[in-house]
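Troubleshooting: if your tokenizer reports a length mismatch, compare your output against this known-good record of 279 residues.
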Amino acid sequence: MQTKKTISIVIMILLITTQAFAFQWPWAKKKTNTLTITGSTTVLPIAQKVAETFMDIHPKVNISVRGGGSGVGIAALIDGTCDIADASRPMKTKELKTAREKGINPVETIIAKDGIAIVVHPDNPIKELSLEQLKKIYTGKISNWRDVGGESGAIVIVSRDVASGTFEVFKKLVLKGDKNRDDALMLASNKAVATTVSQTPGSIGYIGLGYLSADVKALRIDNVLPSNKTVISGEYKLARPLFMYTNGEPKGFVKKLIDFILSPQGQNIVSDIGFVPIK
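Known-good structure output:
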């Protein structure tokens, strides 16, 4: 009797230990038909629509898609908590170094192109700015709309936060390494920027092409309006590629998903959402 009781206790301990082990360790084996995509809010609508369509084609696959920003997605890839990191900027040298130190081998795939649209409230009479004027606005050297040919009124600066790949690209292409005005509103997503600008008459912000709508007005920059055509031609200077990063060369359903994005059907989705296909 005592032996049976002892055996039962041992079995129970083993079951509990096994369950706890699988729960606590991120490298415990995960289901191969479950994928997690995390990162850029610019890439987010592409990833969401592609995931929905892909799951319709492959009903046994379950794909979770989250935003948070390019930095968040890349950190998740490095930590082993996502299968694909969406990014609207290339990985930084320090991120690549950290990844390799942890045994992660980031491989990038360009899945689309984008233009960073500079937007204002629809009632703002301003139609265009130069890159130099844009830099002066964001660094605080110009703070009133009358100084760029508009009506007198304070300029409200709306920016992406530091986790954003769009912020990193804007900082490189527009600010040239300088800092935003201290009172800039630092927001966590393209949608938040678009909403804030649409509700704030004196504001200016920047968003990906896929977030343009009648609620905001895109400005010409150096006399070029952001569009698929001007991004492809290179005329619009505030353009960048959009990435998906994986740990090593894509395999299994991760490869099938990325292959699908790069297929004609996937690139049609990119175009339908408002971004620029690469094929």
